[in-house]
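idk why but the lab printer keeps eating my pages so im just putting this in chat instead. protein + flavin mononucleotide:
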Amino acid sequence: MTESVLMDRRSFLRSGAAMGAAAALGSTEVFAAEEKAKIRPLEGKMTYEEVRNRAREMMMPRCYVCPECNGRGPCVGQVPGFGGMGASRGFQANYDSLAAVQLNSRVVHGVHVPDTSIDFFGTKISMPVVAAPTGGTTYNMGGKLTEEEFVTAICGGCSKAGTLGAVADGIGDPLPVFEKRLETLKKLGFKAIVGLKPRLNKDIIERMKLAAQAGVVALTIDLDSAGRAARATKGQTVEPKTFEQLKELVKASPLPLLFKGIMTPDEAELCIQAGAAGIVVSNHGGRTLADTPGAAAVLPRIADKVNGRCYIMVDGTVARGTDVEKYLAMGAQCTLAGRHFVRAAHGGLADGVALFANKIRSELAVAMVLTGAQRVSEINRKMVVIPKDYLA
Ligand SMILES: Cc1cc2nc3c(=O)[nH]c(=O)nc-3n(C[C@H](O)[C@H](O)[C@H](O)COP(=O)(O)O)c2cc1C
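predcted complex ->
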């Protein structure tokens, strides 16, 4: 942990507000309506700093909006909540493994205004960053936004910034809750990805069909949520999937299907053999299995194994354009950002989300100029210094 982050956290924890909030940690209580009405996200013209400050008021004690979101804040171990499983080491590993990758500055070239756009399964988006599926406005985020407000903020803000939002499918959510989220998407005409849970195949297939009617571009299934069966509500279950089940899902999917939570080259190979459109290299923000390696540390070997045979997305502490450039240079085609989009939605609704998305896009453009990439497809391994143990 850097000195400045340590200092910030210490002084923050000394404050009475933090103490009171910390006492409430772990509670799944939803804020009372009057309290909810007192603090509203900002709307209209605002700075990113204002969005973060408002997000802190909205989300504490679920999220403290620390100066650096590295898994070492007061959210350690808070799942449900905003932290990571166990001692949050998987969350921290995402941050640390990405921080250990460095960018090679390259300044002798003719790149001027780089093109940050990409084609994402037939949809042109403004940058290789899409919102990660994030669910649980009450138990994970503090309950100050309704499901509808949250989906509208995430998908509306991403749409404003020319990229895709995301709609999640909470394990405990009955079908009507999921349908309501899709209705919001459809009503507002936003394009998004949908993250499905590894439910029984028949239930996944039912949800796939609903998503296909709601302007959805691609589907993910977070296979790594399979360990949460114990928390599933009665009548709902999640399970690890066999190779045969993966094949059945691919066959039934009306949309490009990506398996999320892939952390090893051999499982990437199984996804390819099952016919998946892609994979998401992800440890779920360190929120499922504790003590996993960071996504950046496993990505290069997975990308080498995949060797262009399916689409690779990755997530884990994407906060800045330079993070995006690093992940792409190591072999991903697109990234997902989770917690930062959630905070932006709580701090400034759709405008906050668009502000974060545009910030990251302009940072990516600067990084592309200073590493010599005119187009996203030109970002390559020469632009990064990768720790030796990430490679074969
Ligand atoms: C509050 C919260 C809720 C999440 N819910 C889901 C979910 O429903 N489905 C899913 O595939 N991933 C879910 N994730 C994981 C994210 O999609 C993503 O993999 C993870 O947060 C890593 O990205 P980050 O480091 O940018 O947050 C959730 C993450 C958070 C923090």
